[in-house]
Amino acid sequence: MMERVAFPGVIRAGRREMLRMAAGATAGMIIGRARADDRATMTFPFANGQREIVPAGAFPEKGAMILQRTRAPVLETPWESLASHIFTPNDQFYVRWHFADFPNRVEVSPDKFRLRISGGVSRLLEISLIDLVHEFEPVEIAAVNQCSGNSRGFVTPRVPGAQWGHGAMGNARWTGVRLRDLLARAGLKPSATHVAFRSLEDKESPFPPPLHFEKTLELDHARDGDVMVAYAMNGEPLPLLNGYPLRLVVPGWYATYWVKMLSEIVVMDHPGTGFWMATAYKVPARPNGAMQPGEANVPMVPISTMTPRSFFTTPAAGAEIPYGRPTLIQGFAFGGSSGLRSVTLSLDHGRTWRPAELGEDYGSYSFRAWRFVLTPTARGPCRLLVQAINAKGEQQPLAVNWNPGGFMYNPVEQLTLSVV
Ligand SMILES: Nc1nc2c(c(=O)[nH]1)N[C@H]1C(S)=C(S)[C@@H](COP(=O)(O)O)O[C@H]1N2
Ligand SMILES: [Mo]
Question: Which ligand sits nearest to residue 213's alpha carbon?
Fold first, then answer.
């Protein structure tokens, strides 16, 4: 039996408080330091890559984060955090909101919060958080949550949108209930083809409905048994900024579908015409979402499953390693839409590949560590490439995959060391 998650009645920090804290922390940092170049900043290796690092507490329930934007909050996970944890700590899990207006406090007492299941159902359901936790079988799944635009800052030619480094992703153990079980309880009308997901932020939105953050999934996907409504992340209630009290978890799919502050599930007989499905988050209908800049009439489809990725963590770029002796090279990878088949390294610019050893397997959708022992046979610079291939046979491309949204970036990563 899985442990039940205890909920705090109310989440504290208000939006105004959040902004004041962020502003206060920033001011403190500038005033408190003697020289401008001492400020807590970091620089990504791309144009206009300098970012402020906000300290722990600048945003509620968050540790030190890379500030991409204050309102709506867009916060990137520092690379050191990803490099040192297979499960990203909640307090450094990245944050991305589209609209500045979302609830800054959520009360979850049964008379204040209900998850509605409506539309083409036999019974309209309104489920309190307590009933959700106690009346449905709890399930846990380890899964990577990755923004469609993760690593967009590295895309060339440059495209508009948040110029993320690689930290618009995180891996967590999500606990909750199967969407399939909720839909079964409500009962589906035969006309059902799609399921839409709406959030608490709709109530505060200054925008009319087509612009509300609403995403849809096809019915068969919605009830595949993996898609879940999560109430906990790494064993704790979700941080407010990551969607307290409930969020959709769509394992293997980009985070745009992982609707936060989920409040309503609507069974539909059509795919929906909202802005966030019909217009935004479209990618070329081609492998790795790749097209040529300036190419015309490329068929575009809604973004869907994630592609594989792999990263180096140690040694650091440029590190000196000894000639003729073994050095441990380490990193992590994930398969995206399916588990990892292999992680391989190349020392000859991609002509030949050698397998890395894979670490513990937490399931198809999780980060997984890898390691490789390198015994250099020549002195001087040594360039390594790392490539992940998933169970479906999808693999990382050698060259940057471009599209106008800067989505699905996943070329092989490289690491140059110095053999001495
Ligand atoms: N309600 C709501 N859910 C949302 C969004 C949003 O703006 N509103 N943004 C989506 C996008 S594009 C991303 S990348 C993820 C980010 O999840 P996180 O903030 O928990 O990291 O939330 C998704 N769910
Ligand atoms: Mo995103």
Answer: 1
